[in-house]
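Shipment paperwork, digital attachment
Item: protein structure file
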Amino acid sequence: MTYVMSNSEAEYTDADFETVQRIAQDEAGICLPESKKTLVYSRVSRRLRELGYASFQAYLDFVRTPGGRDEMEKLICALTTNVTHFFREKKHFEHMESVVVPHLVAKLRAGGRARLWSAACSTGQEPWSMAMSVMTAFPDAPSHDVRILATDINSEVVARAAGGTYAEAETEGIPQPLKAQYMVPDATGELRFCGPICLLPVFRVLNLNAAWPMKGTFSAIFCRNVVIYFDEVTRERLWQRLAEKLEPGGFLYVGHSERVSSVDRCGLQQVAPTIYRKDR
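Attachment content:
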């Protein structure tokens, strides 16, 4: 049946919504319940208007062709929300500064390497906050082998994150001393990260439900407000994969509404409501 919407511009049927559901699940592990039907119309119809399609069926037929792969990425990105800010859930960064970084310092000064991962970096506020936390606890970090991998499924937000440039209003979560130390205004009045801190983050496009190219392990992984999009099977599989990428004693930070229910199977121990340590 046709899904009737007020002021709708494109035909949108139950079958179209079911097709979007399958695409979201197959491409990115995203679970779209019936309650998201109106949201899907709102988000995806913008893509139809931009490309000139009169119906969802025609658009969805296109994204499933070889020539529609780039648009498929845009469709997946339209179905997710990139809401973030600097030092979101501040206790995570305080924990990293007081517990994780001192451990890393000893390793780095002995000639070792340190890796951290922002697994859903969005527009970059999370990995840049991680970088500032590392620099706060270990100002000499850029002269050592320490990197913060920052990944997201959305190539557009990854590109913006890599640019490290933000409007003044977007930087409200950054304490003024850190802002003065690590950022400079550009010609448009926006603020840009500059100096040695820029050596720490490395930005890449990555689908968390596809293959991962990283070979090594991480001392800390931030994967926050991501699994809320997944069904239980996809969620548990991701927790397991993330745990496997943690070094023994490493920490996993999750979103305030998220929980790892399979801690024993993953070899994790909950040390705070949203912080887990790998014990084996």
